[in-house]
Amino acid sequence: MVKIAVAGGSGQVAREVIDALVAAKKHEIIILSRNVTPPIGNNIPGVTSRAVNYDDQTGLVEALQGIHTVLSFIQLLSDPENRSQKNLIDAAIVAGVKRFAPSEWGSAETTDMPWWAGKAQVREYLKKVNENGRVLDYTLFQPGLFLDYLATPYRTAKHVAPLNTMFDFENRRAIVVDGHDFVMTFTTVRDLAAVVAEAIDYEGEWPVIGGIAGNRVTVSQILKIGEKVRGRPFAIETVKLEDLEAGHLDTSWTLEARHASVPDDQAASLLNAVLIGTLLSGAKGAWAVSNEFNRILQDYKFTRMEDFLAKVWEDKP
């Protein structure tokens, strides 16, 4: 048994991982919270909360005493200049934490996704930590996009809410980049949480790049699966790479469901930017994540995309 600290533990993905860790009944989980009132409560066996100030280095070091692994889910949009995560990393090193996972939980690259620019900066910060020898064992958990999002508007995870993507299974339509049949990785929320729980128990060194590849599929393969499970071809709208580069998106529809962390007054512009950025970065390979944890946890059986979507969309209008 080890002690695991979860930063940003009230977030949707964090709560899925916490549930998987609780179900394993192996470890003690401490949720780090900016609020005095616990974000989840202290009524879950094996889970406690500690109020922290991420600007108080001494307090952070004290909160991390005896912690083996830190999992960070700090919202990048609410962490100016990545101060909270950088301070958390520094405190983890001083406190003798063995393992650290920064707030990743998505794509392999962050190119053309300014809302995730903080990830690249934190990656560089962690790289410098170990440039003269391994000081902190860390990994970048990267599951690609959540397969659950292709079930929108239906909810398939306990905490992660439905979100739109360029593949709209409900309305049988999609937006694709002209001439780019790129590879994307889709992993269910359940599989991500289960892999993280198993990774905690892995006794070897964590790989720096922690790819989790539930399904690696091309855009055309996704559309074929969509046609099969939804009963007819999708209406396809095509955009050009150069238009996306210029920030232009001339389509009849766009994303609608916003993440809970996005303020109402920023939602429309950010959703447009997210769709452009996801298409643009996808064409450049950002969503074709690697499979380091697949190779480490070879007995784990991932949910197949077609099986998952066939079950979700069976008998749906």
Radius of gyration: 20 Å
Residue share in β-strands? 15-25%
Largest sheet: 6 strands, parallel
CATH architecture annotation name of the largest domain = 3-Layer(aba) Sandwich
Task: Enumerate how many helices there are, as a single number.
Answer: 10
Rounded average pLDDT = 94
Share in helix: 25-40%
Indicate the CATH class of the largest domain.
Alpha Beta
Strand order of the largest sheet: 3-2-1-4-5-6
What's the domain count? 2
In CATH, the topology of the largest domain is named Rossmann fold
Query: Which word captures the global form?
Result: globular
Q: Alpha-carbon distance between the termini?
A: 47 Å
Q: Pairing-aware structural class of the strands and helices?
A: alpha/beta
Unreliable runs: none
Q: Can you write the helix and strand succession as a string?
A: EHEEHEHEHEEEEEEHEEHEHHHH
| Count of DSSP strands | 14
CATH superfamily of the largest domain: NAD(P)-binding Rossmann-like Domain
Kindly list the characteristics that best describe this protein.
317 residues, alpha/beta, Rossmann fold, UDP-galactose 4-epimerase, domain 1, 2 domains, six-stranded parallel β-sheet, three-stranded mixed β-sheet, 35% helix, globular
Structural features, described:
This protein has helices at residues 12-24, 57-63, 83-95, 117-129, 189-201, 219-230, 241-245, 264-283, 292-296, 305-313; strands spanning 3-7, 28-33, 47-51, 69-72, 99-101, 137-138, 140-142, 145-146, 167-168, 173-177, 183-187, 209-211, 215-218, 235-239. It has ten helices and 14 strands. The strands form four sheets. Strands 3-2-1-4-5-6 form a six-stranded parallel beta sheet, with helices on both faces. A three-stranded mixed beta sheet has the order 8-11-13. The protein starts with a strand and ends with a helix. The protein has 317 residues and is an alpha/beta fold. Helix 1 crosses helix 5 (189-201), helix 2 crosses helix 3 (83-95) and helix 6 (219-230) packs parallel to helix 10. It folds into two domains: 3-143 and 188-211, Rossmann fold (3-Layer(aba) Sandwich); 145-187 and 215-288 and 297-313, Alpha-Beta Complex (UDP-galactose 4-epimerase, domain 1). Strand 4, helix 3 (83-95) and strand 5 form a beta-alpha-beta unit.
